[in-house]
Every structure is written in C-alpha cells, then in structure tokens.
Amino acid sequence: MVANGKLKIYSSSAPSPDRLRIVDSAVSKVAGSLNFGFEHSNKKELLSIYVYYEGASGDEIPLYCDWGKHWEEDEVSRSIRSMMFVLSFHPQHSNLRGIRTSMCHSA
Q: pTM, whole model, 2 decimals?
C-alpha cells in the first residue's frame, strides 16, 4: 500500500462501460496526483459504481457513488477530492493533512 492510502473502485461485472470508464479515469488521476494506491474490483451484487478510501487502519470509507449520475470526469474527480479534503480533518486520518493543498488545487 502507498503511504497515504488507497482508492478502491467497486462495481458489478457489467456496469455501463461509459460510466465505468469515466469513474475509473477520474479515480486513477486522483490516486496518481495524491500518491495513493488504486485498485478496481468487481462485485456482482452491486448495482452502481462505488469509490472508497482505504487508510492505514484498513478501514474503507465511502467517497463516491455513481448511482444515477451523468457526470463528466472532472466532476467525479472534484467530488472525490472534496470528500478526501473533509476526511483530512478527521484525527484518525492525520496523514492526509499534508496533502490538503493538492486535494484542492489539482485537476
């Protein structure tokens, strides 16, 4: 695992290919710019695309759900970054404090 954590995408094995491509690209760019790990797993019982943050403790925290959204890549990225910014204020995730500026200003 990368020092700052990992972003994880969970989706069914057959989500909308266009939606999955957009979310996958947005998460990949956010993970790269913040020095996070990144992985994608298929779970057949899911109805949507979900993005979680996994920190050093191993807990997974939901950041994004694509259900019913028709957002572009920059909107998905902005939503994930906003949630990460808020999470950086939680005492359990103090390792995220140092990357707040990156979360706000990177595209």
A: 0.85
